[in-house]
Design a protein that fits this description.
Length: 134
């Protein structure tokens, strides 16, 4: 878990994959927000398609790559959370998110987390990918 969180902190921008209502894959740029109590947090607006997709099917995968071309994939199920203290912490540490949502109790501001799932680290070294669970 510690290795995954450090990698996400160093490489927070990546891509989030979900499925639409027809079972078709959808991928979009996304950003890791934070970790707390073993939960990996992200955020979105409840006006977005990604929110509706995760409400219908919470399975997701987030992928990010380091400048050295090491890739991390995290797979799990989204669990939405209304914890205002987490929302406040995200707003305090992410200027762009604060510009969008402005306050923790903004009715469209949603946070979700993954608290267990699978992790894959891979690179171009020729070594097989490393699979971990958390």
């Amino acid at each position: 878990m510690k290795e995954m969180i450090e990698f996400l902190k160093e490489n927070p921008s990546g891509y989030l994959a979900t499925t639409d209502r027809n079972g078709e894959p959808r991928v979009r740029p996304f950003q890791f927000m934070m970790e707390q109590d073993g939960k990996v947090y992200f955020c979105t607006a409840n006006t977005k398609e990604v929110y509706r997709q995760l409400q219908t099917n919470p399975s997701l995968e987030f992928s990010t790559t380091s400048p050295a071309m090491v890739t991390l994939r995290v797979r799990g199920k989204a669990q939405f959370d209304d914890d205002l203290s987490i929302k406040e912490r995200i707003l305090e540490t992410h200027d762009r998110i604060r510009m969008i949502y402005q306050k923790a109790d903004n009715p469209i501001f949603e946070i979700f987390f993954i608290d267990h799932g699978q992790v894959v680290f891979s690179d171009f070294s020729g070594q097989p990918p490393r699979h971990l669970s958390f």
